[in-house]
Amino acid sequence: MKERPIIMNAESVRAIQTGTKTQTRRVMRIQPPGENWQLATLLFTTGSNKNVDKHQWVKMDGDSIIDEDERLFRCSYGYVGDQLWLREPWRLVGCGEGVPSTIEYRDGTRLEEPHSSDYYDWGEGGYPTRWRSPRFMPYWASRITLEITDIRVARLQDISEEDAIAEGADISMSVTGLIFGTHRGEYSRLWDLSNEKRGHGWDTNPWVWIINFQPIS
Question: What is the pTM of this model?
Answer without folding.
Answer: 0.84
